[in-house]
Amino acid sequence: MKNEFTLTIYSEDQLRLINKLSAMFIRKQIEILSLNMSICEIDKIYRHTIVVNETLNTVANLTAQIEKIIEVFKCYYAVNDEIISRQLVLFKISTAAFMSDSNVESLLRENDFKIVEIQKEYTIAQATGTEEEMLDLIGKLSRLGVIEFVKSSRIALMQSIEGFSVDI
């Protein structure tokens, strides 16, 4: 049975890694649901967070192959219950619609919105939460006449005291 898994990969070289990972995922016909690359707690090391929907066996094999074939320090995988994850969404909403709807204030408070910019024609608001919360929020805000929105990829940390360390 397929489940959503979050892979966390630590590497030095992010450019070649993307190319190699892409080839591996295409060969195995695994769809990437989310991809995030960033610096991490270790100098000159990058953290790559990839979300896939696959079987445990496929993900375990994939993780082992990433560590063996591609030059990475470590690759972990986890199901959603084993991680803390967040996404950020920016919404552009008509300022007139934003100001005229009486339910907007309670929606803003309930979802801990941050107003990023207010212009005459539009207002940009920011929300942060789990993927499910953000999808629910997108649905609620659609009635306000969202001009556009953008949702970030997942960022995640494992729910354990241990972190990754490497001796360079």
Task: Give your account of this protein's structure.
31% of the residues lie in helices and 40% in strands. It is an alpha+beta fold and 168 residues long. Strands 5, 6, 7, 8 and 9 form a 5-stranded antiparallel beta sheet that branches. A hairpin with a 3-residue loop joins β6 and β7 (122-129). The longest helix is centred in the first third of the chain and has 14 residues, at 14-27. The model has no long low-confidence stretch (mean pLDDT 89).
List the topology elements:
Blueprint: E1 3-11, H1 14-27, E2 32-39, E3 46-54, H2 56-69, E4 74-79, E5 83-94, H3 95-100, H4 104-110, E6 114-118, E7 122-129, H5 131-141, E8 146-151, E9 155-158
- Average pLDDT: 89
Structural class by secondary-structure content: alpha+beta
What is the end-to-end distance? 39 Å
Q: Give the overall shape.
A: elongated
H/E topology pattern: EHEEHEEHHEEHEE
Number of strands: 9
Q: Largest sheet at a glance?
A: 5 strands, antiparallel
What is the tally of helical segments? 5
* Estimated share of beta-strand residues: 35-45%
